[in-house]
Amino acid sequence: MDWIRDTFGTVKPIIAMCHLEALPGDPDYDPKKGMEWVVERASLDMHALQRGGVDAIMFSNERSLPYQTKVDPITTISMARIIGELRKEVTIPFGVNVLWDPQASIELAVATGAQFVREIFTGVYASDFGLWDTNCGNVIRYQHAIHGEHVRLLFNILPESSAYLGNRDIASIARSTVFNNHPDGLCVSGVTAGTETDAEVLKIVKDAVPDTPIFANTGVKLTNIEAQLSIADGAVTGTTFKREGYIWNEVDSQRVKEFMDRVKEFRTRVRIPA
Asked: What is the CATH number of the domain that holds 62?
């Protein structure tokens, strides 16, 4: 667990999503507004998250729907431009997530100096985006080949909008993922972005791999944050920080502050093992 404190400067960190607008090549990209507008929107959300007091930010191409499991180069290049323009204004740790391409995510992390990535590194799934296959051995070797071994890897073992192919329970998946692949952390998700992570499933995973950091990956909000952090070692959240709690709205810094005030108060009441 030491890397959690070293990276985020706290226990039970909150990683806030900075959802990027549609990028060139995406069906919803607006060429009239152009990349300058995409950068501006990202800047406004990033600053709102930082003002609200989150522990870290993760940039993702959330509006690149429908997602690709192997993205076109323009997606990674566009994200690199956005992060490059904002990099000097980022005052907290940050990560990246190129949905849903683990190799591209690691490439982007190395190019921009991101400390961590979240991705689907293991498993085979039937998903809304087709048959979702992975090759963790190749991806990890590639990470080392491009000198990205310092990048922390958060494995999403319950990806949204998909079902694991194979008759295995989540505890077995968690244990074998940790044994075979040595992830820096595991992310446990709900059905879609913004859907609450099942607390029972979260506890099953934590009990199965108690020495591995576990993150509640979706649907964490003001009303459930204490219950989620009572089990998980941190949380990744985005939708709850948006105006009116709607995923495609802009970040509301007041909502962020109220959330983080609750988190900070909770931390003072929780005994954290040394």
From this structure: 3.20.20.390
